[in-house]
Design brief:
Keywords: Transferase. It is an enzyme of class 2 (transferase). Its EC number is 2.7.1.-. Strand 4 and strand 5 form a beta hairpin. 39% of the residues are buried. This protein has ten helices and ten strands. It is of the alpha+beta class. The chain has two domains: 96 residues, Phosphorylase Kinase, domain 1; 211 residues, Transferase(Phosphotransferase) domain 1 (Transferase(Phosphotransferase), domain 1, Orthogonal Bundle), CATH 1.10.510. Helix 5 runs antiparallel to helix 8, helix 6 packs antiparallel against helix 7 and helix 6 crosses helix 8. The strands form three sheets. Strands 1-2-3-5-4 form a five-stranded antiparallel β-sheet, with helices on one face. It has a three-stranded antiparallel β-sheet with strand order 6-8-9, with helices on one face. Strands 7-10 form a two-stranded antiparallel sheet.
Length: 319
Amino acid sequence: MSTSVTRALTATARTAAHGPYAECTCPAAIPTVLADRDDGTVVRHGTTVAKAHARDADRTQLATRLAVAAHPALSGVLLAPLDLPATELDGRPVTFWPYGTPVDPDAPRSAPWEEVGTLLARLHATPVEALPGPLPVMRGPHKAALAVSRMRRAHPPEPVAAVVERAWSALPPWARAESAPPGPVHLCHGDLHLGQLVRHPGPHGRWLLIDVDDLGLGNPAWDLARPAAWYAAGLLAPEEWLRFIGAYAAAAGPAVPSGTDPWPVLDVPARALTVQTAAVAVAKATAARRALDEIELALLDACDRMAAVPPELPAEAAK
């Protein structure tokens, strides 16, 4: 987003925080750009956050997702938007949210993995018939396909691209956003990672899930896939993975069968998220004209291993 538009979004956040006429007495450093991407620019002013969504965001689907986030059934699971009218800025819809404290990226060992697992289980178990609708499709597989397209447009070195392409082509069509997901669908987040978690500033300081841009109906295993992919690639410690998946199972999350090996259910989504992450990494490295770093090479190596072994299929998908 251009500097002028970012400045305008900052002014929008200030107005949302104080009203159009009240004097702002916040410290000069209060306006903060939290994220600035084509699919979402986020600015904070005091306790108010303004988000400019993607220009091509479906306004009807976004309105439904906002209504779901505000629904009492999701209280304590999703951060609810502020009760302010949505607006537009430079052709992008803008929504408003209370500020919450994010997970500390410099303290990965203290990440609240149990809370993430419990929140996802509660999200997935929410009765969809009680929610505003019609609910859109969860956009996780679509985002994976977009990541591969982004890599292709970057024209990385052929040997590198070939590794990612082989892993991608080995996935079933539903994981490439080419068909409907198997099995019953549930309410899903669609883009779960630790950056999608904030501690609410209220008296109880609860952790809540944020960012509803990809929220919708889909295979709930997708929301477990990124931690599973990190674990499989050696980027998430086994004890952290067990804290996460154990909390999800203890909260009766529907994505994985109780008391059985979860991997047949998680294998395909985890592979898809590995390809997605690797494709984005390769695209960024190519654009910056730099070599892949250690973590990016680990993702590429994971793609190489995946391509050599067919994905597992859960029993019901194999019938």
